[in-house]
Amino acid sequence: MSEHTATPQFGASAIPSLREGARRVTGHWWVLLIAGIAWVGAALVILQFDQASVTTVGVLVGLMFLALGIENLALARLDVPMRWAWALFGVLFLVSAIVCFADPTDTFAGLADMLGFLFLVVGVWWMVRAFLERAISPLWWLGLISGILMTALAFWTSGQFFIEKAYVLLVFAGIWALMQGVITIVRAFEIRAVRDEL
Questions:
Q1: Which residues, given as ranges, of the chain have pLDDT below 50?
Q2: CB-based contacts of 93, cutoff 8 Å, min separation 6
Q3: Domain ranges of the chain
Q4: I need a surface site. Which of 57, 96, 170, 182 has the fewest CB within 10 A?
Q5: What is the pLDDT, as a whole number, of residue 93?
């Protein structure tokens, strides 16, 4: 029996090409790092606003929804588990962005009224995303904890009066951007570690 018939025929070139493809994809880890830094920057800007900048807050919240929608739709194009969930939440975030851009001043008031629901959508998505990434990310629990906290904040916010909701909107939009930034930066360095191992 020859040596060729005794060993499985997986193709010698398949493993190096797969490794090279993964290395090429993970080589773009810095894009997530820049996105995470941008989220943290947005959080710092939002947390410095007062009630006089209602229009600006409406636009910034719209930009946050837009960035999150684009990110989720981009991830839905990759070969990831349950791509439809990434796409669905991406579309929901894009619709939220359009609503914000349509009339930023009224958006602020509307967002303050439905702030609890919006935070609930974000919190549920973060929990779903954490479970989707559990098999590939050792820090999946970070997204799960963020989702649980955001869901708790959603229920708490729903019980507040409108004037308090306006201030809560400013603070929680900043907290949301900050949490998204930290999670994105952590993911960037996880991808960089995978690239270095390859």
A1: 1-2, 4, 7-8, 52
A2: 65, 66, 68, 69, 72
A3: 29-197
A4: 182
A5: 92
Tokens representing 173 are: 């939009």
Amino acid letter, 64:
M
Predicted pLDDT at 150:
87
* Among candidate residues 38, 44, 6, the one with its CA nearest the CA of residue 174: 44
pTM of full prediction above 0.70: no
